[in-house]
Amino acid sequence: MIDPFGRTVRYLRVSVTDRCDFRCTYCMAEDMRFLPKAELLSLEELERLCAAFIRLGVRKIRLTGGEPLVRRDVMRLVEALGRRLGAGLEELTLTTNGSQLAQHARGLAAAGVKRINVSLDTLDPERFAAVTRGGVLPQVLAGIDAAAAAGLAVKINMVALRGINEDEIDAMLAWCGAKKFDLCLIETMPMGEVEYRAETHLPLSAIRARLEQDWTLLPSSYATGGPARYVQVAETGQRLGFITPLSHNFCEACNRVRVTCTGQLYMCLGQEDAADLRAPLRASADDAALEAAIAAAIARKPKGHDFDITRAATARHMSVTGG
Ligand code: SAM
Ligand code: SF4
Q: Would the pTM of this model clear 0.85, i.e. be above it?
């Protein structure tokens, strides 16, 4: 699958649910309305969809959401996709808030997952409860420990928020270093209407300059095909990534597309254009129409997003498309 700008699409992010047990302030509104369950693709349909993408050249799949581990029986999908590792699929990963990791970490590892991303914006229990609107930090930390014990490589995703956790970035870097986790800092992106976003937006260029006063940040050629730019932290031996959608445009090397839990294929996180894959998926047991719909959509993948922090670039919340 090669798009009009010559980028080969090898990476699929699949949102398996729009639901979540948290309501992070930058991600969701407090009174989020979720989709009726009947609109969701079944786990079998999601697997069929992933199989079609693998046939068309996708090599890496990341399950996300909403919170992927709150979808009932999601491990059935993880196991089914895990069986495709080495048979077209090269990597299966997951982005999670960690709340359900304690019970699923071993199952994920057994299914062939090697690396996971866990979102963790603060190590302070009260702040954590405030940012997530009700999350319980010790539960997440226990999940992270379980993941590490199961042999999963953990990368921590921290959304940098002005006035909320900007004073904790050093502490998080040190904590990740001690645990042998990589850390990725993320700038807020304008997705969906939520409160206070422009006020909490924190440009990572300033954070990086500040960190460089206390840490030795060495250039790194490490790249995951994702939007993060990495450095190596000499003091800890771990990597530190920066995802800066606003202050640094990351689109030129974009190799990914996203499917929502209702089967909408988004060619760009920051644009509204989507292709409905649920209709061709349900219209026939034969995958020809589905594959044709995917190919037609890739042919109109846009050059990039046009985010602007003062307005929502999309009406969709991040939890709908999957971060
Ligand atoms: N629930 C899972 C989690 O939190 O990891 C997976 C889905 S969540 C939408 C994926 C990632 O998107 C998380 O790291 C979250 O912090 C990030 N995210 C959500 N809304 C965002 C926004 N408006 N700007 C930047 N990152 C955002
Ligand atoms: Fe849920 Fe993840 Fe969004 Fe937080 S960032 S509300 S954990 S989907």
A: yes
